[in-house]
Fold:
Amino acid sequence: MRKIGIAISKGGTAKTTSAANVAHGLARRGHKVALIDLDTQGQVKGFFGVEQRGTLAALVKGVPLADCLLEVRDNLHLMTGGPELAELEEWISTRTMKREMVLSEFLQPLEDMKFDFVILDTAPGWNALNVNLLFYVEELLCPVKLEAMSMDGLKEFIGHLGQVQQYRADLKMDYVVPTFLDRRENQCGEVLEILQNHFKSSVTMPIPKNVRLGESFGQGQTIYEYAPDCPGAYAYNDLTDLVESYVRK
Structure:
């Protein structure tokens, strides 16, 4: 089972859009996928037109993990996020031992449920759940909006990642995904070049600025359902290709 976290410190970089579309893209190819929303805003569910169900916080009260998973598409099961996750973060802070391993413990049953992929969406910033994420996942997908302001969020995330790498030396940014590409804007090209120079082969093909990606959320659909022939759908299909075939070195 491959465990992929989608994370970056800055908001508005298309983390949730990437989580929903990559997860659905893999499910459409026949892979069994669990999509876990770790954000108190709980926006992932908007791409699937469903209401909130049990969040990860429900597990503290003894609710079985399977009861918190909602099958939203063929091969795709979603655990929604929501405000209750703030309570979970407080609960994690009261633990005296292994606070960073709560997520790993809670999601252990997924191993026996024969999932091929676990995709986890995160809140921006740095909190207890994001620390837990970095101790759970094996791969990191980091969407970076192609604007100068995003570089601060990227630097902040790299700093946090470096702290965790003291304990998990193998953890790295496997996919650096440039988002909101508009070739008419010089700044996009400049930031893209910076990313390519620094992260080399980890930089994927960019996701274009595409109004259909935002519209699909409002329609309760992923981009493959809402506008399968638009540039955004082609870009996420290519990213899904990369994730599906990726072999970690």
